[in-house]
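Field: COMPLEX_INPUT
Field: COMPONENT_COUNT = two
Field: RESIDUE_TOTAL = 527
Field: MODE = joint
Values follow.
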Amino acid sequence: MTGLLHQIASGIASGAIYASVALALVMIYQATHHVNFAQGEMATLSTFVCLTLIQAGIPFWVAFVVALLLSFAFGAVVERVLMRPMMDAPVLASVGVFIGLLLIINALDGWIFGYTIKPFPSPFHSAHAMLGGYVSPHEIGATALTLLVLVLVWLFFRFTTLGLAMRAAAHNPASARLCGVRVNLMLSLGWGLAAAIGGAAGIMVAPIVFLDPNMMSGILLYAFAGALLGGIDSPLGAVIGGFAVGVLENLFGAYVVGTELKLTVALVIIVAVLVIKPAGLFGRAVHSRV
Amino acid sequence: MPALLEVRGLTAGYGETNVLHGLDFAVEEGGVTALLGANGAGKTTTLRALCGTIRRAGEMTLGGARIDRTATEDIVRLGVGHVPDGRGTFMELTVEENLRLGAYTRRDRAGVAADMERLFGYFPRLKERIRQQAGTLSGGEQQMLAISRALLVKPQLLLLDEPSFGLAPLIVQDIFHILRRINTEERMSILVVEQNASLALDLADHAYLLETGRIVISGTAAEIRQDETVRRSYLGY
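Field: COMPLEX_OUTPUT
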């Protein structure tokens, strides 16, 4: 029983990370109808930048904020420079760009920061484990912070005019332009925001899985499974799907397939969702009448 | 007095193909101009060219300022409200959010709130459905929403793309009645594109007939109504 609770608790902790990355994927999918395969590598880069800042003696939270701001700028620039010219290109061409970006960032990370696996400091340290030892202080802190980020993002999209304009630009760019929304700028902002959300997830997961250029490759797969499970066009679905995948992955890993085959769970979820319910659990059925 | 909108030698098209071959027309301040024509004559293309959503060339001035090289988002800011082909509803958003987007370029919150109330006077149905997802509205309600969104821009010029399209006759009557009121009570200048010539001529003071991207007949609404060709081909009597 204790073991089960422990597995669920740490599943929720990794689920929070998957949920963030899934949300970043969904944000870009909604705006562009593409899945950004480089989302994970962009997050790894953010994490390396954060570590570099920390090692330069900058306090953790300052480094965290600066790294996210830089990630935001990087995401916006990627959209402006790489994706904008691809706007009317065939899907496969865009996929090619995403994969190229993935490989480039991955190689750059290795070249600049090295391939050795690095420990990453946690801002949430405490001498003893909490909640009867089920979860580490870092897991609780990281989950809380991730939830905070998700709530802030939700508030931003739900209640601000800029958030509304970004949603409008994603759903119906032609009509948004006719309302005066600068759609291209919204796309850049969306990419920036997605990159910052992914970066936060990377920094929160690094103390658990340790940092190397391939840190996010498995996580991206889980996040992708979460996004699909929740519905690739539903931000709320992505978050719930991310948590669900985190818990499922841990339970299956502990009791069914073993830790070595855990990643298979993600792949099985992806295939199962695509075969049984491609729209996902929360995939929107748009009501429209003419 | 110079016209509010003046267009000279407008050509426009999609990709390599030109659809408009040099249009000249105008909309008077406070007036209603109708562009008539059959399917494929270039009516919708003309409105798209005005708003800069497609490739276009020629001279276009709005209140004396050139707009032929201006981006769509800035043309909106100069005061052009566009009720587009297909109504442009943000299906996934609520009615209220759709309306807020209409007022996106404005910073005068009090003015926007007052304008919304005034529009609810014309279209009480929208107020009843304010929290509803806009995709669930009927076609007529979506047309009302599109008109309201365009008016919330606080435009000098309202562009209407086939406001009667796909709607029941009674609803069409309602909508045209309200458009008439918006024109007379608020002195809103309107450029309306319609397949239904008789309906458009009732509303308009000036009209142009488009055929395959060229203006073939122009004049006051009364003159156009008397024109033999228009009568036979477009009014059907």
